[in-house]
Fold these 2 entries.
Entry 1:
Amino acid sequence: MAKLETIVREFEVENKYGIHARPAALLVKIAGKFSCDILIGKKGYEVSAKSIMGLLTIEGHQGAKLHVHAVGADAEEAMAEIAELFANKFFEE
Amino acid sequence: MAITLKDLLDAGAERLSLELVWGEEYLDRQIEEKAINRPGLALTGFFQYFAHRRLQVFGLAEFTYLKSLEAKEREVSLRALMEKNVPGIIIARNRNPLPELRALAEEYKIPLLRTTMITSHLINESTVLIEELTAPRGRIAGTMLDIMGIGVLLQGRAGIGKSETALSLIERGYSLVSDDVTEVVKNSRGRVMASANNLTRYHMEIRGVGIIHVPSLFGMGAIRRETELDIVIDFHPYVNDADEDRTGIFPAEIDVLGVKFPYYMLPVSPGRDMANLVETTALNHKLKMLGHDAAKELDEKVIGSFLRKSGR
């Protein structure tokens, strides 16, 4: 059985409109490519990064700090792609 | 869960017509005991069993008593109460605070609130409100539906078809409560009530279609704001040796906010109509609640027949 990797990182939302529908869809698309479980949210409240409706409830406004947990064989690759997304402000202003 | 005066003021501005008279800076004071106290006896100087951790309400009786006192006695009486460091004071019937009350509240940094309600209504309403504010709550992954009065939570990993199944059930006339993220609150009767996140309420995301607004497409009958949770159904990929209950005699249980609920595991595979299976599971649960357990009844019939044939 593949080793179960757990990676935790914190990101700050930098784009003006936060994680609205388009960024949420981008995140879901990336998360969906990987088999690992990815949770995202704030302290005490996390949702699956594979659910658009879930992502819209975590209140990821500009300046919000979000934890991302990735658990599974391909957690490292998944986290790298998610980090890129945050770093590029979801390709928005 | 403890609440502060600010929580109460925010939630009660409309429902209790509460307004702040004094003490904006001290609204972070906690209401340690979730009840309301009328401090009549305490005002007379009797402090045994005085519920000083509760909010104190000054109504007609308290005001009339205080007014019957000389100014000096009134100050002594109120000071003794304030010294107990009560969390806050609510004045009923929209009265103006007595000058001594206001001055002492400021001295002891105890916020003063006021309402237009009469005391008895205020006590009833605020007890319910405080109960709601302090109720255990959480958010869980899953789509919530109301199927003929049975609250069903659909769980399962992303992409397994929860929202699609919910859509089929809505088409059959049942109601959506929330999609993918469900908020749960345990009420004072120990029941778990499920509702949607305020921001995304009544919206769903269907793969390939996108985000839809359910009442706009299917009408007001297709939604419900809140429903009581009755059963949890978990969708999982079909595997031959899955640990599922094939008879329905020994249903598994799942814990939500400390309450146990029947937990049905439904395998998903091509050709299995999940909406139909969820509907059947819900209706069968309702039948069980009415005292008819089909699985047990059949088993008893089988055992009875065997016992007759065994000849002992």
Note: The CA atoms of residues 20 and 56 of chain A lie 6 Å apart.
Entry 2:
Amino acid sequence: MSRGITPRAQGVHPSTLALFARQEDPIRVGTQFDVAFDLSCPHGCEEEPVALTLQEPGGASRIMKAPLANHPAQFELTAPTEAGAHTWQFDVAPSGHDGLFHEASSMSLTVDVVPHAASVAVWALPDAVISGRPFNIKVGATSTAGRAIAGQTIIIHDIDGEEVGRTTLGDTAWPDTVGLLWAEVELRAPDQPGVATFAASLVVERLKLPHETTACTFTVPVTAAPEHCVTVTVVDATTGAPLPDTLVRIGAYRSTTGDNGMVTLHVPKGSAEVVVWKTGYDAPDCPIEIVADKAIKISATAVPEDDPDAHWKG
Amino acid sequence: MAKNNNSGNSKSIQGKNISVSRRGFLTRGAAAGVGAAAIATAGSQEAEAQARWARTADVVIIGAGVAGLPAAITARDNGASVIVIDANYDIGGRGILSGGRLHIGGGHALQQKLNVKDSADQVFLDWIRHDHADSRYSDRDLVRVFADENVPTYDFLVANGVKLIEKLVGPEQSSTVPRTFLTVEWENPAEIIAPKRQRNGSGLVRQLALKAREKGAEILLKHRMTKIIRDGRSGRVQGIAVTAEGKTFNIRALKGVILATGGHTGNVEFRRMFDPRLTEEYQQACQPWVNQDASGEIAAMEHGAALWSTANQTTETAAAITKTRHIGCQWGYSSLAYEPESPMFKFARAVGLTVKDWQNVVMVNDRGKRFWNELSGDYDFFAAAMQWNGDPKKLNGGGPIWAIFDAEGAKREKWITQPPHVDPAGYFFQADTIAELATKIKNPHQHRPIPGNVLQDSITRFNGFVDAGKDADFNRPKPVHKIATPPFFAAWSTPILHDALTGLRTNTNSEVVDLHGKVIDGLYAAGEAQGGFSQHGLARCLVFGRVAGRHAAKRRAIT
């Protein structure tokens, strides 16, 4: 069979306009997003771009061009600045030439536009804070609206909902983060020893675009003022060799041993547990009564190391 | 405007490119349809009755791995002509990625040299022990053969140039004397699939493949068995149907067909016969190099073959399922990781972050909730990971498990949280806050987004346990590190499946037995495709590969 140019079809064909795909992530207020749709003819016609009227949720309309073809076309739309369901209306006018015409078609797209999302992180917390004394922490926030939150306020509440501190976000991102704007804030430790709970939240009322926020709840141990030095030496139970780089906790205070297996912690009076952690070792928790400076030695027993290659090594 | 790219029929428009050309798709679809029709025709009974044999050998072996290669050598040693096919582009199966751990004893020369007293009877007694879960469910007929064939198998390896490290690794599983040895890694790194990971098994399969070829066995790579062809009247297996590069043809086996296809762990439908929890999110060790697709088992079961000793798959002692050790990549099995030097790296996409201290992470399920003590890695941990997590649309399997850690944890572990160490395409995520991290976790197996406040609550609660010095939820020993310093990370750490511990029923000749207890004439199984006992490692594959190759070679040929 010889191949020639297919003669142009004649007559009036329908056209169909249908959604092909839209951005899967939530569509946030005031942001641009992509939609793709098919404008096609059931007979498989391919025609020059035709006029398409887009009526936006706010009532404005604009005219664009879309190909009548067998592949989807993509458009960028802008979400309104108010959250909620919004509808875009697309209308394709009748078109045609040289005896082949395509009927009008239309489509509407309703999108649930959601507020921006902001959330908070709190770090650089002291291992423990002294009752009644001030301490510093770092707070940061990130938003799907990017730097729109620069200069906004973060408020810290205690467990009773009382504001105990506030700070203003700077305009530089914390190292290695994408856009975590941050600040330091000074808080005062409660008078009662124990574990104190706080929550840090971003104030969003003054932002132009609506935001939903996730607060960051955090805890800090509160103790009496340290009065004594406890020196802990950790050794290998079998060889007696010092164990460096071993984490030692006395109550809420912690540090790691040096090359000589020793660490000195400044701790409050009272009873506490000495807890030792080193990968591949096991050491029992050791209760102590702290009434004066003291030195203790803890033997850690090597346990067969959970080496991923142990199964295979000779 | 619309653009095409090469990513197939995807509707995602996260990027700017639209990926579908309908004409392209239709063209491809039409071609695929023709191919499917061709296969269906070739597989019909009519075609089978008039089967034309493209190739013929006395013994046809499916799988050039730890069972198939010794079968090929042994069949050649017994005078049979041999064709081995393998679906992969290279030989070795899972054995090439193995650490080379070989459980072989009975009093062989190396044991004697190292002053180990052992005997075939002792091997037998150890592997039928009632007081050990690894041996309790063994088929004692098969264990007897295994025991008696240990020394001859050792001698076979030595005779064929396989080198063992002259060192005792120690008794293991139900053995009472040292029988575990390691093969010496293959000398050419270019021929080791994961060359930086002590893949000692490469020295076993490369050497056996060398010998098999030297002795005249033909190994056809990128050939996939599609079915076993059996004579309708006599019931004798005649050969197999094969596809290679889109062509389908038949290979005749005058004496026998040996299934050495590997196990079933990578086949979701098949493995769920033994444990319905093992849904699709659980990956298989040694993927993407090889997929344990149960093709041998299924092909044999289509002819009525039985499975055997299936309890072994679920004794919860052997390495049927393991804790992911390299997190942040799709396949983080224990000692195996694909470095950028590996030919598999392109497919594996990341090496993974090796966890040295689980104190540095908190593990959450696909709801963002902790589920167990992260320092544990036993079957209670796996059961907790696979528990129902409340998804009304998914009652089996527990969904993905994510290891959550912060910048300080990464620093303590000296992790580099960038490719090639991690796979941001679904298996590793970074964010500025914990709540934001939850929204970033996207993976084909993560069916619902993790609510940001739920993950934040899980981490806040855990951090409180660090302050208190006690994990009130799961009693994780000595919680020592808070997860607080940005940025934050989520790394895939879903448990990964390993050994197939059940398979086809065979008799002591490795001949496949059907549901009525009758031998399927001319069909053999060895290796992980064979059921019987649940030993981890290479020895049972080698032993029964030899047994099958020898028995098949000695049979009378079809005339």
Note: Chain A is about 0% helix and 55% strand.
